[in-house]
Amino acid sequence: MMEPIDLNKLLLLSHDEFCRRVEKIRVCMSEAGMSAVLINDNANTYYLTGRVFSGYVYIPQHGEVIFFVKRPVKLEGDCVVYIRKPEEITETLGLNVPENIGLELDITPYSAVERQKKIFPGSEIKNASPVMRKARSQKTAEEIDKIRRSGIKHVHVYSRIPYLYNEGMTDMELQVEIEKTSRLEGCLGQFRISGDSMELYMGNVLVGENADAPSPYDFAMGGAGLDPSLPVGANDTEIKPGNTVMIDMNGNYNGYMTDMTRVYALGKIDPLALKAHQCSIDIHRALVDMMKPGTEAKVLYERAEAMVKERGLQDYYMGHRQHAGFIGHGVGIEINELPVIAPRSRDIIAEGNVIALEPKFVIPHVGAVGIENTYAVYADRVECLTPAPEAISYFMI
Amino acid sequence: MMEPIDLNKLLLLSHDEFCRRVEKIRVCMSEAGMSAVLINDNANTYYLTGRVFSGYVYIPQHGEVIFFVKRPVKLEGDCVVYIRKPEEITETLGLNVPENIGLELDITPYSAVERQKKIFPGSEIKNASPVMRKARSQKTAEEIDKIRRSGIKHVHVYSRIPYLYNEGMTDMELQVEIEKTSRLEGCLGQFRISGDSMELYMGNVLVGENADAPSPYDFAMGGAGLDPSLPVGANDTEIKPGNTVMIDMNGNYNGYMTDMTRVYALGKIDPLALKAHQCSIDIHRALVDMMKPGTEAKVLYERAEAMVKERGLQDYYMGHRQHAGFIGHGVGIEINELPVIAPRSRDIIAEGNVIALEPKFVIPHVGAVGIENTYAVYADRVECLTPAPEAISYFMI
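^ Those are the sequences you sent over. The predicted structure of the assembly is below.
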């Protein structure tokens, strides 16, 4: 249960937790030689305050954090300044102009950055996006606890999936039942993705050959979708005996999400699919053993690829007609956080990382197999935050 | 029914329709003195091709449109060039360097624009966003037909709402039933908003006092939401006699959407609420009569405001604790298109505009009232694309 919160207080985090997050950011700022950052992105303001609001958070390397609020009205707290437009930030800062200023250059539109630059006419402009991505990739215990609590609900919803199937259902009909079950369990629905080039509604249900339909989006698996305006996921395929159903649904129950995939089937499936599914499970085991602070992310990718080749499954790995370029990613407030588990990734596994691993396969005429779990990395161990049965489940009919 | 489409062809529009849209863009480019534009945003590439893909569309003022595709694999058609990174665009353009180039500066992140600029080292950089917004605001007959078809399904879903209510339901429980009904009717779910500062999942169900909870987002109405990570909409309020239930759910059934709001209630409600609801309906009638090509958008806003003041309802208009600054907006591929019906809008109503009007009220202790319809503007008339009964409906129990 969530404790009752005073929604008039701007800061919905405890003071200690707020300080921990600011400190993480300041360490990354220091590494990047940054005097101050100005934060505007919803995911980043939520990280810093525990709420989404319209406005800016100004974090100097030294001195007090200032919250510039446009909306909603009547938020209270220390260092809360109401503004109507970003230019008013100048008045509050006065002569405390930073030597350089980090702006969210990888997310904020060009025109908005040009406007923000004018607030700091004498300051060198730097990119705060890598700083924020790195700080957010090393979760606090409180953040991991939120993800763990999303995971519990996520697992609970998945446990009901075998009972949601009815004979003759299409992928969409099943997906709608899972959406409803998720929502009644408290799923917020919002699927936060950094940047606006990737789009997905509530998750992905892939049946049979549709798993191999190439998608324009940078997801591990594709699917044709219902309409070319949203070419991903379910496409009204009927679930038939011998096909697999890969389910990768939204796990956002409190602002932090888990990412989890499981496979279901109607009756017997091809032994090749079972072999590939087992390979995915075995890759998880091997990678979890390697997922220690200090390990290079690309080494995990290479280990997985070697296991796939040993078993002669490379033709099916991460898609058949189009292959995804990564097998894992950080997850938290957004679905595409650091680190990225990819062949040319420069990321290093760190304590506090929360990582979704998703080695998957597409077997022609059968469908997609493999699992995805979300893991928290600690100094001395790894915790699975999506502890659901991993074998292929069979629909109850 | 949608005709079967060949998904391997890049262009999913007819040649004529494609030419009409390119011509609209070129007229706007010419007004802005733009030699070429480079399009990357999903909504804009969908507008130009009838599909979302990962890549760029290059439109010179004179000469052929070129499609640079990163994903998905194997799209076919004239002037389709596969690239891995934007820098490869240079090779194809060769010596055909435009004098100036319009980039989507209001949408594309700063870092991405800096990278795109390097493709055109000798060209002046201009802002293509206003050009694309204006071209897209003047819909073709084919676009209006898609919106009309979304409207038919949207109206059908709303007609079932009175039967979805069960005694003791909360706003969320009702919303989940409407979500399911919408999805089974073919709703794609995706709620496209230009920019990433506004967030909403599938729509907004506001019961009683929650209608007045201020939201950080720039929607006409707010709501506290279930969680501070997504502070908008339903907040688990039980639907009680005397309260109104305002329903503003996703109308995207084919890539183009209608925007429609209706009000429901459980038993008798305060006469003040009925009076305000009737005022909203009357504003619609008055504004539809004025919504002719050439009319200034702000004049519509002023007329509505005058009607509200005549009836002494200004305290409740567009929110009670926090007031929205607009009463209408263009709608199509995205929910926040041109024109904007606001006091300082410089937009002029034009043929082909599709406009959602939403004069709404919040009545203390009762909830939100008022309706929203989507209208198409023609040379000589206005068509309502959301023709559902406008009076407050009562739940069946």
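The first strand of chain A starts at residue 36 and ends at 39. The longest helix of chain A spans residues 141-164.

Shout if you want it in another format.
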